[in-house]
Write a structure and sequence with these properties.
The protein has 851 residues and is an alpha/beta fold. It is built from 36 helices and 20 strands. The protein folds into five domains: 233 residues, Rossmann fold (3-Layer(aba) Sandwich), CATH 3.40.50.300; 156 residues, no CATH class; 99 residues, no CATH class; 190 residues, Rossmann fold (3-Layer(aba) Sandwich), CATH 3.40.50; 58 residues, no CATH class.
């Protein structure tokens, strides 16, 4: 992770201006409005009235029902002999002329194209499919029933009341035909992977956001210390945007990427922000243009040319690193009373897993010198209040009369299963054969409910039903029909909590048999790919070969003698007891939906292993290297010519007019033509798709078509991206080749230009995989669907492992996710209680006013 406390680069400044998506804008708008109304709830799914822009009343409701829905409903009633009678609507119902015009403007053909987006049509489609499966005695009908039951309660604008009456009848009529057990049995499909409920769900605040807004809605002049614990990807980092509706906020984080990411959203929210990175005094604080009060304008463009950064009374959010916090604090206090400022310390546990770190002294000094009485410590793995008593007492001594608040959330909207090295989904009942250990595990999980996110719902359902069907509980009130009050009481989170309750109420005498049963019945989640690959005769060394050892060192190309090797049927042998690890060849197809992050201690070793495993022929590598060398030579010449042209133009007034008129001297015109000629000579550098993971040719080579479990994800680099890669001058060529494969690296040893480019590609989801050092977990807010935890991360603490897993599944969609561990001992670490955790010890030591 980049914990260098330095000023922002030009690339970082430019990145904060990148626009966010419309969906992200809706989230930001919700967060801002939510501060003033924590019960805010809305859904922008079209109803037919909202689509036609009509006002709701009984007359128009009846007219719309008769025109668009009545025939379909009547056919369903007759076909399935339903005891439901439609309240007839007159065919000649008179409606206002303006409403009639709006309806006629939207023809039936136009509405047909919107049927998969309009609420009422979606309901009718689901009911139709439910009837189809119910008639054929296919349990798939339960999926549609459960969806309809929940869909009818969405907070959409002006749904058709007459149609909802029919929907409510359907829900009531079929309720007796299903059992809670059947819903739990297929809960992964009916609840977790329910595309309708995911895509069209209501937008509302998370409970932890409501809680923190409630704390600061009622100011305490003596201050507040908030311990803010919530799972990753649930909006903690965006919460300061809501808090800034009433307070001035100093957002401080050791990982600069987090602050830069927040700034992009804050600017889109039209918040006035400032930056404090690598500051040596308050004079180093820099204002974003929106926050500038005094500035000079460019006389040509009319835009802001120079900002007076010393005047910051318009600043709403100041984003800084830990080195700059004290300067940021005094800067904000120069324009605002300290009681109206909140210090929002994001991820204060960064570096707390180390006994000693260069950031520790800075953190300790910040705590000692802090005079802001409102402080939020925010992290998914923040120690509990009972573990931070030394820190809490110290804060109370400094700010007498302050309030201490503990917000501990375990909001769980998706499952990200943990996969062990053999390809099996891992859960507590698979891990511990000893009853004592499983009881200890349950106690630990109940204390850290954020772990629910990683409980695979499909495996839980099997366990829950087995225990119920075999009557293995020691408390009758815990059996399904006694525990759940009804269908509406079933949710993903409640099933997972029920799983822990069951584990806690199994007799010790039965545990051994239960454990053995599930070991025998266990089914692999990621199976080995057994496709045989016929490899052509190849050469280990040839006259056209680029020696890999030399290329890795960035040295000159060198030829060596030819040696032929024997052809083989298999190019890889699976490492004993491990599956799914050859992610550039035969296992790439298992990485679906989005990019992958691979966390390891030795990033270079992993990268070189995967390049080696890709078996790119030396002749292809040589061609690429020759093209890179040739293009570098051309780029140097073009750059020199462009500089000469710019120097000539800069000497003349009316620069823009001169360029457009083409009025140059002969020498300059020659240089322009020469630069254009050289650009035309630049060679296209590309890697054959057969070597790029999950491109079509790669899949055809490595995977059986019937093996594909979901659309595999691949990289998406265009020609201009490749050109930018090739322009990087201060990295070894091996890393450029890896980027052509869609693989980028995050490591302290990489060039800053390279790292910024990888960040940009990762943010745009252009890369197939990122290989990162374990410390990068706090700084990567990118959208990853799969993650690997390398086996060389043996010293990773429990809290850091949870943070690492939190990089996965950060988007709002429900896709196929996985966290894959290369060492099963690291999984066991997650589910065991540890005393004297380094994060707890170090926070109490450093977040203290004493030496």
């Amino acid at each position: 992770m980049d914990l260098t406390q330095r000023k922002l680069t030009r690339e970082e400044w430019n990145s904060v201006e990148l626009p966010i998506s419309n969906d992200e804008k809706k989230v930001i708008d919700l967060i801002k409005k939510g501060f003033h109304n924590t019960s805010i709830l809305y859904n922008d799914t079209y109803t037919i009235l909202s689509y036609l822009k009509l006002q709701s009343n009984d007359t128009i409701d009846g007219y719309i029902f008769h025109r668009y829905f009545q025939d379909t409903v009547q056919k369903q009633i007759e076909k399935h002999s339903l005891p439901y009678e439609i309240t007839k609507t007159k065919a000649k119902t008179v409606i206002k002329k303006v409403d009639s015009i709006r309806i006629e403007q939207n023809t039936d053909e136009q509405l047909q194209t919107m049927k998969d987006r309009i609420y009422e049509f979606l309901l009718l489609t689901m009911i139709s499919k439910m009837f189809k499966y119910h008639k054929n005695q296919n349990n798939r009908w339960i999926y549609y029933y459960y969806t309809i039951r929940n869909f009818r309660n969405l907070n959409v604008s002006c749904p058709n009341k007459k149609l909802l009456d029919y929907v409510n009848f359907i829900v009531s009529h079929f309720e007796t035909d299903l059992s809670i057990e059947n819903i739990i049995r297929r809960s992964a499909d009916y609840i977790e992977r329910n595309e309708f409920l995911t895509k069209f769900s209501d937008m509302k605040l998370y409970q932890h956001q409501k809680d923190i807004y409630e704390v600061f809605s009622n100011p305490n002049p003596n201050g507040n210390l908030v311990l803010y614990i919530a799972p990753t990807a649930t909006g903690k980092t965006l919460t300061p945007i809501g808090l800034s509706e009433k307070y001035k906020v100093i957002f401080v984080c050791a990982a600069r990427h987090v602050g830069i990411s927040l700034s992009k959203y804050a600017i889109s929210a039209q918040k006035k922000i400032a930056f404090g990175f690598g500051c040596s005094s308050t004079e180093d604080i820099r204002l974003h243009y929106f926050a500038a009060k005094e500035y000079t304008k460019d006389w040509r463009s009319g835009g802001i040319r120079k900002v007076d950064n010393t005047i910051g009374d318009k600043v709403e959010i100041l984003i800084c690193d830990i080195k700059s916090y004290i300067y940021a604090m005094y800067y904000m206090m120069a324009f605002n009373p300290k009681e109206n400022i909140i210090t929002y310390w994001d991820e204060p546990t960064i570096t707390m897993d180390y006994n000693d770190h260069s950031c520790h002294e800075v953190i300790h000094q910040n705590w000692k010198e802090n005079v802001i009485p409102n402080l939020v410590l925010s992290s998914a793995t923040l120690p509990k209040q009972s573990e931070l008593m030394d820190t809490i007492h110290d804060f109370r001594d400094k700010f007498p009369g302050c309030n201490i608040h503990s917000i501990d959330s375990y909001d769980c909207k998706k499952t990200i299963p943990i996969i062990n090295k053999s390809g099996y989904a891992e859960l507590p009942h698979y891990l511990f054969s000893e009853y004592r250990m499983i009881m200890s595990c349950v106690e630990h999980c109940e204390s850290y409910l954020t772990l629910l996110r990683y409980f695979d719902l499909e495996e839980i359902s099997k366990f829950v039903l087995y225990i119920n069907e075999n009557k293995l509980l020691n408390d009758d009130t815990l059996y399904i029909n006694n525990h759940f009050r009804g269908i509406d009481d079933i949710s993903m989170t409640k099933i997972k909590l029920y799983y822990l309750e069951i584990l806690n109420n199994i007799d010790m005498d039965n545990w051994s048999d239960i454990y053995n049963h599930f070991q025998e019945e266990r089914k692999v989640r990621i199976a080995p790919n057994q496709k045989e690959i016929d490899m052509p005769i190849t050469k280990s060394h040839s006259d056209s070969h680029v020696e890999m050892s030399n290329m890795r060192k960035g040295g000159p190309l060198r030829k060596s003698q030819s040696v032929q090797i024997v052809p083989t049927k298999r190019i890889d042998k699976y490492i004993k007891g491990q599956t799914g690890i050859f992610i550039t060849t035969r296992d790439a197809y298992t990485l679906t939906d989005g990019p992958t992050i691979y966390l390891a201690d030795d990033v270079d070793k992993i990268a070189k292993f995967y390049l080696q495993q890709s078996h790119i022929p030396s002749s292809i590598l040589q061609t690429i290297m020759e093209s890179i060398t040739f293009n570098n030579m051309l780029n140097n010449k073009i750059s020199k010519l462009e500089k000469d042209i710019e120097d000539v133009v800069a000497k003349e007034e009316g620069k823009e007019k001169k360029i457009s008129d083409g009025r140059f001297d002969d020498a300059t015109r020659k240089k322009i033509k020469e630069a254009e000629r050289l650009r035309g000579l630049i060679k296209t550098v590309s890697l054959n798709d057969v070597y790029v993971p999950n491109k079509l040719q790669h899949i055809e080579k490595w995977t059986h078509s019937d093996t594909l479990i979901a659309p595999p994800f691949t990289s998406d680099l265009c020609d201009s991206d490749v050109e930018r890669i090739m322009r990087i001058s201060d990295i070894e060529d091996i890393w450029k080749v890896l980027l052509l494969m869609g693989i980028g690296l995050f490591s302290q040893n990489r060039s800053i230009v390279y790292t910024e480019l990888v960040k940009e590609f990762a943010d745009a989801q252009k890369l197939y995989m990122i290989i990162a050092n374990g410390d990068y977990i706090y700084g990567t807010n990118y959208q990853f669907c799969h993650g690997f935890i390398g086996k060389d991360l043996q010293n990773m603490t429990q809290e850091k492992a949870i943070q690492a897993m939190g990089r996965i599944g950060r988007n709002k969609l429900q896709q196929t996710y996985s966290v894959r561990y290369r060492d099963d001992n690291l999984i066991r670490k997650l589910y065991q209680k540890y005393d004297n955790k380094p994060e707890v010890v170090n926070m109490n030591r450093l977040f203290s006013s004493h030496e």
